[in-house]
């Protein structure tokens, strides 16, 4: 390279740098979280050009608790109470797939009545989680009534679950071999009454929140996640179903008695922010139908818990089972070396998969849409960090 | 909703009453009396019963009620009373305080909650729980430390909240509450009101710039965009009122509605004015400058302690001012059916003490009527503005700008043409069909 060429390339480089600096000056880097009211235990930095987001960098890990490592120091039963900590609002579902995987390893048959009770608990818990999610979605959009209503209705379901399990949020109810104890007297009637009331409330939610023109204006057609992108990014749960893929673990890989239950997979084809906010409501409505059927078909009496040896252990091997939680597929991969303690536990959560879509959706959308897009992904920071 | 007082005991109750009386006496002697004297020294003193009223004579009114009435009559018609108490700041601040209480209770009922339920419960018995929540909040804000961010522009950071309250209170001065009861009755009152409203975006941008922080900066820019976008429909919607009434003086606009309220002819303008005042107030659905989930607290992010308290006070005084302006422009101001009698009781000789207690001599029937109707209508408007907050989410800035610059301007133009047609069609205006003689 001659001197002249070198000098030219040097000037171009400098020129480019000046242009780049000018571009950088236009951008403002905002740090959202972990103390930002719109983030939760989670941080992401966004770069905004005026009102448009041009870059987004999620930074999870603020509430990493080492759940997987903790599992290796406790036996299969002792793991239950700490495993539900990542999502205490959905604690029946997060212990459900763990129980299924352990049952496969230890080779236990769950009594039929226990399977029904498990499913009822997990459906009720799905509603509790989704109501909590909906409350936060409401306040993220500045709708204070939509924060108070689901929070209030959630209390009623929590009371019901308290009667069933003995604890308000952290139930530790689904255990390997069945459920901890039988349903209390009069639970069936109480549950049916609650479901009927709740279905009426869902209509009111729709009236005051989902049919509000202002909400529709700002969420419809925003942050579209196409079917192809959704599959490519590997999102699950309501986010996947909102992108037009009718995929539900309860239908695709039915566990326990879900193959005997008649229900539809709710999905929407609009793929936008509104669809992602609306599909959980449809899920809650479907969940009410499922609870009715479960209560109807449940055997009147019988065992609810299989007999286990004090320290259950199975032959060396591995198991992977997953369930449909409030946020999507929630799977456990457990390796056993023949001892009462698992050799390795890997938790695959829907939240972390859905997080992958966040930079994809935020880039190009407006700053005002940031909270609604972020929370429509059905992302629970504590679960993603595990 | 009523909660009984638990553990009521008579002894501590009497002790608390004595304690209260003690403090009231202390405060009266140490603060209130000297204050009255200081005020009386600066007020030009009138002749009462042939002698010049001195502060020492003023004390004697406590013993002789016949001397009190002339003094009170004189005080009420001073400029100081107007600015500080009745149509001015204290009246507005009282309405603002009542608004905060009503807003909390009302929203709570809407959202299946109880609302503030402890402060003031034991002071006034059952049924008034939560009444003193505002006092508690105020005391808390006063006692908090004011934190100024590093690198902030201190003079502007201090001045902006005070300017905010001052600008809000300046609008209150223009509002005619009853015939003759207005702080400044000027011929271009409406224009002055809009000129003062033009200060708010300036104050907010200055404050957010002075905060030296990113979120306030975004909030300030949003406030600037929003307030300017809604300024024009705001002014245009009031313009059709000016076309019908033929005056910019707010008192004359009120008198022009003595037969018909303008909302009958200008419903679209009233709607536009209402929406614009919501945007002007930065209330939901237009609370983008303070959108908490997007930009923390917007331009208020760096406020703390009494700086925040002052801005909140200013916001609620502004809420009163805008509701009152709506009432004056569209709902006929103080006009309403007469419900108070012209005089209290049969005229005649009464014992002086009774005369003072019934406020005979101070009482004026039409004024009491006007104040009642004006306050009632203002509260109705404030209630409507609060209702919006319970049912709507926040909207986005581009939708907001589109609404302001495009939809509302077109709507206000439509109603302006309707107003012109009414004037030139001979329905309203001088010599019109519906004009009262």
Summarize this structure as a short list of keywords or feature phrases.
heterodimer, A: 386 residues, alpha+beta, Cytochrome-c3 Hydrogenase, chain B, three-stranded antiparallel sheet, 16 helices, 8 strands, 13% strand, globular, B: 437 residues, mainly alpha, two-stranded antiparallel sheet, 18 helices, 2 strands, 64% helix
- Would you identify the regions of chain A where 5 or more consecutive residues have pLDDT less than 50? none
Proportion in β-strands of chain B: under 5%
Count of discrete structural domains of chain A: 2
| Quaternary organization | heterodimer
Q: What percentage of residues of chain A falls in helices of 4 or more residues?
A: 40-55%
Report the β-strand fraction of chain A as a percent range. 5-15%
Distance between the termini of chain A: 55 Å
Structural class of chain A: alpha+beta
* Secondary structural class of chain B: mainly alpha
N- and C-termini, Cα separation of chain B: 52 Å
Q: Report the strand count of chain A.
A: 8
User: How many beta-strand runs of chain B?
Assistant: 2
Would you list the SSEs of chain B in sequence order as H and E?
A: HEEHHHHHHHHHHHHHHHHH
What report would you give on this structure?
The complex is a heterodimer of chains A (386) and B (437). Chain A has helices at 3-26, 67-71, 79-83, 91-106, 112-140, 144-165, 187-210, 213-219, 227-233, 237-242, 249-252, 273-297, 350-355, 357-362, 370-376, 381-385; strands at 27-32, 43-49, 52-59, 174-175, 178-179, 317-325, 328-336, 342-348. Chain A is of the alpha+beta class and 386 residues long. Chain A has two domains: 3-58, no CATH class; 67-385, Cytochrome-c3 Hydrogenase, chain B (Orthogonal Bundle), CATH 1.10.645.10. Chain A is globular. Chain B is mostly helical and 437 residues long. Chain B has two domains: 39-76, no CATH class; 136-342 and 350-424, no CATH class. Chain B contains 18 helices and two strands. Chain B has helices at 10-42, 55-60, 65-76, 79-84, 89-110, 121-124, 133-143, 154-172, 189-197, 199-211, 214-245, 250-256, 267-281, 292-295, 305-330, 352-357, 365-391, 397-424; strands at residues 47-48, 51-52. Chain B has a two-stranded antiparallel ribbon with strand order 1-2. In chain B, helix 5 (89-110) packs across helix 17 and helix 8 runs antiparallel to helix 9 (189-197). Chains A and B meet through helix 5, helix 6 and helix 8 of A and helix 11, helix 14, helix 17 and helix 18 of B.
């Amino acid at each position: 390279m001659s001197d002249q060429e070198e000098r030219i390339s040097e000037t171009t480089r400098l020129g480019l740098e000046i242009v780049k600096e000018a571009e950088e000056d236009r951008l403002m880097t905002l740090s959202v979280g972990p103390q930002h009211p719109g983030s939760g235990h989670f941080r992401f930095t966004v770069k905004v050009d005026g009102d448009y987001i041009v870059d987004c960098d999620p930074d999870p890990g603020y509430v990493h608790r080492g759940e997987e490592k903790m599992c290796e120091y406790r036996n299969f039963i002792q793991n239950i109470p700490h495993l539900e900590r990542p999502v205490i609002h959905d604690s029946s579902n997060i212990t459900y797939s763990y129980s299924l995987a352990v049952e496969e390893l230890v080779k236990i048959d769950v009594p039929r009545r226990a399977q029904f009770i498990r499913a009822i608990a997990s459906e009720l818990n799905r509603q509790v989680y989704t109501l909590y999610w909906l409350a936060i979605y409401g306040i993220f959009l500045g709708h204070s009534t939509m924060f108070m209503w689901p929070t209030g209705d959630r209390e009623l379901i929590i009371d019901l679950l308290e009667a069933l399990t003995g604890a308000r949020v952290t139930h530790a109810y689904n255990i390997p071999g069945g459920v901890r104890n039988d349903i209390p007297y009069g639970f069936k009637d109480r549950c049916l009454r609650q479901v009927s009331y709740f279905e009426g409330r869902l209509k009111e939610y729709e009236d005051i929140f989902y049919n509000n023109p202002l909400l529709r204006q700002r969420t419809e057609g925003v942050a579209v996640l196409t079917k192809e992108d959704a599959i490519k990014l590997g999102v699950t749960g309501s986010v996947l179903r909102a992108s037009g893929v009718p995929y539900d673990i309860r239908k695709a890989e039915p566990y326990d008695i879900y193959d005997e239950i008649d229900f539809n997979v709710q999905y929407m084809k609009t793929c936008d922010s509104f669809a992602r906010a609306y599909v959980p409501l449809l899920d809650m409505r479907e969940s009410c139908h499922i609870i009715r059927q479960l209560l109807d078909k449940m055997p009147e009496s019988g065992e609810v818990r299989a007999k286990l040896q004090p320290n259950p252990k199975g032959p060396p091997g591995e198991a992977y089972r997953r369930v449909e939680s409030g946020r999507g597929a929630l799977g456990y991969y457990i390796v056993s070396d023949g001892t009462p303690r698992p050799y390795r536990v890997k938790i695959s959560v829907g939240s972390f998969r859905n997080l992958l879509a966040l930079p994809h959706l935020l880039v190009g959308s407006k700053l005002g849409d940031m909270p609604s897009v972020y929370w429509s992904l059905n992302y629970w920071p504590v679960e993603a960090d595990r | 909703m009523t909660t009984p007082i638990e553990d009521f005991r008579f002894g501590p109750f009497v002790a608390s009453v004595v304690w209260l009386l003690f403090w009231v006496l202390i405060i009266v002697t140490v603060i209130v009396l000297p204050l009255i004297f200081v005020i009386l020294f600066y007020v030009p003193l009138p002749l009462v019963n042939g002698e010049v009223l001195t502060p020492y004579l003023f004390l004697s009114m406590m013993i002789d009620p016949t001397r009190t009435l002339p003094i009170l009559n004189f005080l009420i018609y001073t400029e100081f009373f107007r600015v500080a108490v009745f149509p001015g700041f204290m009246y507005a601040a009282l309405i603002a305080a009542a608004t905060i209480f009503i807003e909390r209770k009302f929203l709570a009922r809407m959202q299946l909650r109880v609302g503030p339920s402890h402060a003031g419960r034991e002071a006034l018995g059952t049924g008034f729980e939560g009444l003193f929540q505002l006092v508690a909040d105020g005391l808390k804000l006063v006692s908090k430390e004011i934190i100024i961010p590093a690198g902030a522009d201190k003079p502007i950071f201090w001045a902006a909240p005070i300017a905010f309250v001052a600008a809000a209170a300046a609008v209150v001065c223009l509002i005619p509450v009853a015939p003759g009861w207005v702080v400044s009755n000027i011929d271009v009152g409406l224009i002055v009101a809009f000129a003062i409203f033009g200060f708010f975006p300036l104050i907010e941008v200055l404050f957010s710039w002075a905060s030296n922080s990113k979120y306030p900066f975004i909030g300030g820019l949003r406030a600037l965009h929003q307030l300017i976008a809604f300024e024009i429909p705001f002014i245009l919607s009031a313009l059709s009122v000016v076309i019908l009434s033929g005056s910019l003086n707010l008192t004359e606009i009120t008198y022009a509605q003595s037969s018909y309220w303008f909302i009958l002819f200008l419903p679209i303008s009233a709607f536009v004015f209402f929406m614009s005042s919501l945007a002007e107030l930065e209330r939901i659905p237009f609370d983008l400058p303070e959108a908490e989930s997007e930009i923390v607290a917007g331009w208020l992010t760096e406020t703390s302690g009494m700086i925040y308290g002052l801005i909140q006070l200013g916001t609620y005084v502004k809420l009163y001012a805008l509701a009152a302006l709506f009432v004056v422009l569209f709902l006929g101001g103080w006009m309403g059916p007469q419900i108070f009698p012209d005089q209290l009781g049969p005229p005649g000789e009464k014992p002086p003490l009774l005369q003072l207690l019934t406020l005979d001599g101070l009482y004026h029937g039409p004024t009491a009527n006007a104040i009642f109707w004006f306050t009632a209508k203002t509260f109705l408007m404030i209630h409507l503005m609060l209702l919006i907050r319970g049912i709507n989410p926040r909207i986005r800035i581009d939708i907001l700008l589109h609404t302001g610059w495009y939809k509302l301007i077109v709507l206000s133009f439509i109603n302006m043409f309707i107003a012109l047609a009414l004037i030139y069609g001979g329905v309203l205006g001088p010599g019109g069909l519906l004009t009262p003689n």
